[in-house]
Amino acid sequence: MNGDLAYEVQEAIFKALCNTPAVATLVTPDGGAPRISDSVPDEEEFEHIQIGDVTWADGGDKTDPGQDGIFSLHIWTRRKGNRQLFLIGRQITQLFHEQPLVLTAGAVTLLRHSSSVLVRDPDGRSRQRVMNFRIITTDPQP
Q: Which domain holds residue 74?
């Protein structure tokens, strides 16, 4: 994927998460900003959504250049049980699964939640849900 387009996809995901109250309020401390970033949360930053790994491959052809990719979102919590991970995950799925993602260059032709896994962190206190989304884009036309 064109590096600029990959970054634009990440920015669009970030903006959609921050600007959707059903998601942002679940990861916002009282009076603070939503805890959404592309880095692992610090010790005090729970609940947190991390925009994670991205894998891209050429998905176009001679007439329609494009990219086929997978991006992951990691939801972090220190609450007991998995309830909070399911609540936040449900809102994220409703936000992105088969919904439009607006880009200024190129276009998203498919965005679909493909899988999730719940994992207990090796620290023994943190849990995370890793949500994978398939995304197909068309490159901007010259």
A: 3-138
